[in-house]
Amino acid sequence: MKISKTSSASQEMAEMILAVVNQIPYAKVATYGQIARLAGLPKHARLVGRVLSHLNADTDIPWYRVINAQAKISVKQLDEHGHNIQQQKLMQEGICFRGDRVDLKRYQWDGRVEI
User: Fold this and answer.
1) What is the C-alpha to C-alpha distance for residues 45 and 83, in angstroms, rounded to an integer?
2) Sign of the CA dihedral with 52 first, then 53, 54, and 57 last
3) C-alpha to C-alpha distance for 70 and 58, rounded to whole angstroms
4) What is the dihedral of CA 101, 107, 113, 115, to 10 degrees?
5) Do 56 and 93 touch, CB atoms closer than 8 A?
6) Residues in CB range of 47: below 8 A, 6 or more apart
7) What is the torsional sign of CA 72, 75, 76, 80?
8) How far is CA 99 from CA 33, 64, 71, 103, 109, in A?
9) Which of 95, 21, 104 is nearest to 70 (CA)?
10) For 2, which DSSP code?
C-alpha cells in the first residue's frame, strides 16, 4: 500500500501496521492500540486509524476487524441501505454486538498468529 506524500519511515510504519492487521483471524477483532503495540509502535493508535482510512474500498486487508478501545466501531461508512459497513462485515463473520459494542472478552484477538 502506498500512502501519498509520505516519507519512507512513514511508509515503513504503515506496512508494519498493515502486516499486523492482515494477521487478525476470521471472527476476531483487535483495537487500534493493540495493533499499534503489536506493530512495535506503542502509543500510535491514531496512526493505525489514519493508515486504515487510506485503504482502497476494494482492499483484501481486513480493516473492519479493528475497533476502538471502548469496543465500538469508529468507522461510520454506510452502504446503500444505510447499514454500517463495518458492523455488517463483522456480523457476517459471526461477531455479535451488544448494543453498539463488541464483547472483547469473547472476540478480541490474543495477538498470536495461527499457522
Assistant:
1) 26
2) positive
3) 27
4) -140
5) no
6) 13, 17, 36, 41
7) negative
8) 22, 18, 11, 10, 20
9) 104
10) -
Cα angle 112, 90, 63; round to 5: 65
Residue 32, C-alpha cell as written in the block: 487500534
Residue type (1 letter), 8: S
Q: Tens digits of per-residue pLDDT, 39-56?
A: 999 999 999 999 999 999
* Residue 103 grid coordinates: 464483547
Rounded to whole angstroms, how far apart are CA atoms 62 and 86?
10
Beta-bridge partners for 102: 97
Grid cell locating 55: 485503504
Where are the strands (E) in the chain, listed by range?
Answer: 30-31, 66-67, 97-98, 101-102
- Taking alpha carbons only, the member of 87, 84, 67, 56 closest to residue 24 is 67
Q: Are strands 66-67 and 97-98 parallel, antiparallel or unpaired?
A: unpaired
In this prediction, residues 65-94 reach a mean pLDDT of: 92
The string of pLDDT tens digits covering residues 87-106 is 999 999 999 999 989 999 99
The count of other CB atoms within 10 Å of the CB of residue 28 is 18
